[in-house]
Amino acid sequence: MMTIAKSLLVCVVLVLIYSLSIWQRPLPPGRAQSLQRDNVEVIDHYLYAGGNLADTVVAGSSLAAQLRRSGHLPGGWYSLGMRGGCAQNGVAIVAASPRKPRVLLLETNLAYRIAGVYEIDKTVHGLNPWVKTYLPVFREQNRPAQWLLSLWPIPSEDPGSAASSGHVPKDEASREETERFITRMFYKEMGNTRENIAALKELKAQLLALADQGVQVYLVRIPGTRSFTCGPEARTIDGWVDQYLMDTRFHRIATPDVTPYRTTDAVHLDAPSCAHYINYLRRQLAVPAN
User: Fold this and answer.
1) Given CB 3.0 to 4.6 Å as the disulfide criterion, which of 36, 45, 58, 163 pairs with 49?
2) How many structural domains does the chain have?
3) What are phi and psi of 28, to 5 degrees?
4) pTM score, two decimals?
């Protein structure tokens, strides 16, 4: 019995020491070594560490996550962009939070995707919310392995960068061909139209429920290259959004001219372009909605 008591005491002391270390050296969310864990960190921070105090929330895929990873989101904004995911995951997290944002910006580029369950199971359906709220050591971003990795910073690179690896050729003809190929790959999940439309209808129901709670919903399409933003896939998705997702209770922010925007890999905006687009969104939100 004494051995068990001593073991428990040692565990408690170690947890307290590690908690103190976290308090002295807090880690920002979204630094995990895998896409899914990265998403869980971002959700944990939103639900249990004050992220849901944001006035404006962006929900979307890795395109919206890029806005967060660029470091240019203003105070009072939070991005629930899911790397490898879609807007439905972010909307589900907003719905699960007891506090709702004033404005929800929904990225429609990949709104037709079917929501993944891993992130929801690990956050909303995982540990009791009280545990992660008051014991930060149990949040995904505070895993011991993650904290130890932070002591040896890895040289940063532009999030999602492919250009730096030579994946996007420099000459114009090859660049356009490669951008077209990447665009087709990015939209490869458009094959099952019935499932895509069902996902949009489900998303609309979630958004209407949030609108009933006073959330102002804005639909946005994040720009990229001309092929990605104005190609046949984008036009098809726009048609689906108009028919199955748009509602008179939602607002729409027009997609800006793609000319001044640059990407890292034909689809994800680079950091300066993220800043440019965020400023564009802020200007549009400053105009009273109809």
Assistant:
1) 45
2) 1
3) -75, 155
4) 0.78
